Structures are given as structure tokens and as C-alpha cells.
Amino acid sequence: MTVPEERKALIGLISEATLAGTRQARACNILGLSTRTVQRWQRGEPDAVDERSLRHHESRHKLSAAERAELLAIANSPELGHLPPSQIVPRLADQQRYIASELSFYRVLKPGKQLADRRSERPAQARSKPRSVCADAPSQLYSWDITYLPTTVRGQYFKQSPQGSLAARSDTA
Length: 173
What we know:
By secondary structure, the protein is mainly alpha-helical. Among the domains are: 4-54, no CATH class; 65-109, no CATH class. Helices cover 36% and strands 7% of the residues. The radius of gyration is 37 Å and the shape is flat.
């Protein structure tokens, strides 16, 4: 939206450009305006207030404050407080009750930050990779791990013996 002073200045620039031989559409394009907008400005009163700012559209289906309070009370009730809206609405439908749509539940719960974890269990925690252990001499590392370590020879693996030393083992044996 442009204020009347700015609108007058823009109309003056465009009329100056058209008197110099430029097409109105090209001058409007350079200023980032629609030709139709400039024509509407030129036709009307230059001091008129932009009517778009006077409009205020209110949805006819918007939930009232009482309906929003009832929705929040149901969503936070002990029997439904741990469920997401995708499960609340069907459970209410099973009871022959309709409060609002699933999208309306999401729309009302989101500003109150009530959508994050609606479950009774603890939220998942980030796990980090365990630190690696490196042994560079005998008897530095003891483990219950009985994995077979690969070798450069195909079909031969190292297995840790009960005494802690590594012994070669072949698949064919």
C-alpha cells in the first residue's frame, strides 16, 4: 500500500516518462507497479485513502472463545490429554460428540505449544556414538566380544581365544 504523497510522486514520475516518449506500461514496470494500478490511481482522487486498509475479513466459521475453551478443556482432559488430535477426533466421534475438526484441534493447540509431546512416555533422547577403544600392545584391551576379525587372506579370520590372545581361524576348518 502506498501513502497519498508517495502515490502523487509515482504518478508524476510516470507522467514525466510518458511525456518523454516512454510507454506507460514500460514506466510502470521499471517502478515495479502494475499498469492497472496506475490507471486506477489516475482515475480516482489522488488524496484518496487506499481502501484495502479499511477491509477486515473475519471468517464466518471461526470458533468463538467459548468453543475454543471447550476444545482446550477436552484436549487437556485426563482421558484424552496424552493423545494427538488425529486420535482425539475419532474417539469423540465414537461417543457421538463433534466439537471441531482435526485441523481445528491442531490450529487451537499450536499457539499454546501443546502439540509437541502429548504422550505419557519420555521423549526420545539423542544418542551419541560410543567412543572407540584402540589397543596398540598385548593385554591392553579385554572384551567379551567374540566377533571374527577379517584378515587379508580370504576365508581366514581371527578369533579371540579365552586366554585373551588372537588365534587364526579358517572358514574351511
